[in-house]
Specification:
Two copies of one chain form a homodimer. By secondary structure, the first copy, chain A, is an alpha/beta fold. The first copy, chain A, has 15 helices and eleven strands. In chain A, the strands form two sheets. An eight-stranded parallel β-barrel of chain A has the order 1-2-3-4-5-6-8-9, surrounded by five helices. Chain A has a three-stranded antiparallel beta sheet with strand order 7-11-10, with no helix packed on it. In chain A, α2 links the parallel β1 and β2. At the A-B interface, α9, α10 and α15 of A face α9, α10 and α15 of B. Chains A, B: This is Nitronate monooxygenase. Chains A, B: Its EC number is 1.13.12.-.
């Protein structure tokens, strides 16, 4: 394909793949798409290692980095360490998690470790500095308007800046802030998402941008795990697709093995949009864990970002390990971010094969639509 | 267009338009689509009048009738009159509604009338008998598997039977029950809907039907108010689109004038999926009315179908009248069924113009997608 976005990013097919797994990023880029590494969970040193590895694999082909810097979070603007942030987690929440684990036969460590947060201090900026020492072709912020330093770094380095939006108002705000690429992500998406569906959001965002005279390209995201869905979005005016969930059941993915099995078995109705993992609404696989938090009636209200993640991430990593080893209680609790497209993810495949299937399916869909107009 | 579904139904463009307004039904049919009259709210005598009028307008062109016969409801299988059903509405609910009205400066009639229900007795069957005396080309059931008598009536009269589904499991059940057309309706739809988005549900339903060896055509529904969205769904494999919301702001529509203004001003985020109108989750325009019912935290749980409708429909019709006359409290309460596509509905148009714009936009979308593959 030779669409404007393909030309701009030097790719063959406008499929953008968000993954926390460097192997997926490299495989997608090498297959003609654009892999984007989710960098937030790394230390600057780890990110340096990951990107160096990717550079060796892709040999100059384009890839990107995503660093979450939300506009609002607990401790923003304060000089707080991770430990000081952790002190803000109420004891009752620790008790709530302990009891939830106990009810699933998971003994609790005497002094449970709380997670650190890359939102404390200026880790986001440090990660970005690392990324910019590599030949990245895109930097993305998956939550809210990118901070000024990201927009400025993009300008001065010539690297386009992308931002995810879940509502037309946010798209207008992002366009005015100066981003180069807007990802309109519907409510069916895995991870943080709004309430508007992809099929409505994409044309609504495109119309809103046209109204303010903006021609920023828009990628469609949310629920897209096949080439036919991507083609549907391009028919609506999207420049391509941003994907995440579909890579979680690839051979390369970092997903915990038991969770992969759950995903393969899940239908699209086995996800829930809940703040029980990060403190902001994000779509996840339904499990006893997601059942234990609001919006389920009468269940615990989550803490604000990033306190909820600090409380739960170490626990859920332990749950994943126990689940992998066959622990039944842990298997009932195990969950991960995933979109409604999980209902269409039924087989483990290499990431490269996913890209090739996307292309084939996209072409077939374009032919199907063109065929509908033939006499 | 000459796709199989166009041939089968004798239409030029596979756009199916559900409306409670006979003028919309006739206008869509006369413009080359297929209008479907929502018949449930009528008495058999009224339905006879409406269909006779439509027959005169469309002169043999194809149209359909939709009669809601849910699989489960309060009083099903019992010989109860509307009055006996009304006695099952707890006094506290009447008080709740009275107080809600009072808090909006709406005085309450001394003896408030409760609505009747066409689900009492065998009104569904009687309506169907009326419909079958007219040259209808489709009968639809918008809630659950059609009752046996509908499937049998379809078989003996040669009129195809359509059913709406919100999940893959329901599609399989419908196919096995023998329906001729499946409408896969996503969560963004106005009226009764499930939780899965149209972009995910359509390919998931198509895959599920293929798995059981069924080739029943599938219409996409939910959020579709433009030709580009319809084209996107046809690219994914849908045979066409089933629409509802987009007709509510046409010149012909029965929608209360104040509610039309609210819809034109609304964004896609101004809807909510709530059981506060019918007792089953349905998407509506957000208002003080929808705010007063679950799933809003701490608010009243609605009654089961059809008791909730019997309680609220007469009230909301009165609210509409007051709102039209400028009553501020009523304007804050006024609401109607509408999907997230309301964010793309910004102008009152004749129904015929909506169809023509759909066609133009569909063709442009098909060209856009085909263009993405050109060198």
């Amino acid at each position: 394909m030779k669409t404007p976005i393909c030309e701009q990013y030097g790719i063959d097919f406008p499929l953008f793949a968000f993954s926390h797994c460097r192997d997926v990023v490299a495989a997608v880029t090498n297959a003609g798409g654009l892999g984007v590494l989710g960098g937030t969970a790394y230390t600057p040193e780890q990110l340096e290692q990951e990107l160096t590895w990717i550079d060796e694999q892709v040999k100059g082909k384009p890839y990107g980095v995503d660093i979450i810097v939300p506009a609002k979070y607990e401790g923003k603007g304060e000089k707080v360490t991770g430990t000081q942030l952790a002190d803000r987690i109420p004891a009752e929440y620790q008790t709530y998690v302990t009891e939830l684990l106990a009810s699933h036969d998971i003994p609790v460590e005497e002094k449970r470790r709380l997670g650190d947060s890359n939102l404390s201090g200026n880790t986001g900026e440090a990660l970005l500095e690392v990324a910019l020492r590599h030949p990245i072709k895109l930097m993305a912020n998956a939550l809210g308007v990118p901070p000024d330093y990201m927009i400025e770094a993009g300008r001065s380095s010539g690297v386009p800046v992308a931002a995810l939006v879940g509502a037309r108002e946010h798209a207008i705000k992002q366009a005015r802030a100066g981003v180069d690429l807007i990802i309109a992500q519907g409510t069916e998406a895995g991870g943080h998402c709004g309430e508007v569906s992809t099929l409505v959001l994409v044309p609504e965002v495109l119309a809103a941008l046209a109204e303010i005279g903006s021609d920023i390209p828009v990628l469609a995201a949310g629920g897209i795990v096949t080439g036919r869905q991507m083609a549907g979005c391009v028919a609506m005016g999207a420049a391509g697709a941003w994907t995440g969930s579909v890579w979680l059941t690839t051979e390369e993915a970092e997903t915990a093995p038991h969770t992969v099995q759950k995903m393969l078995a899940a239908s699209s109705r086995d996800t829930i949009r809940s703040a029980g993992r990060t403190g902001k609404p994000s779509r996840q696989l339904v499990s006893d864990w997601t059942d234990a938090w609001a919006p389920n009636p009468g269940k615990q209200q989550p803490l604000p970002l990033p306190l909820q993640s600090m409380l739960v991430e170490p626990v859920l990593r332990r749950v994943d390990k126990l689940a992998t080893n066959g622990h039944e209680g842990a298997q009932a609790l195990a969950t991960y971010f995933v979109g409604q497209g999980v209902g269409l993810m039924n087989k483990v495949k290499p990431a490269r094969e996913v890209v090739l299937e996307f292309i084939e399916d996209y072409v077939a869909a374009a032919e199907r639509l063109a065929g509908s107009l033939e006499d």
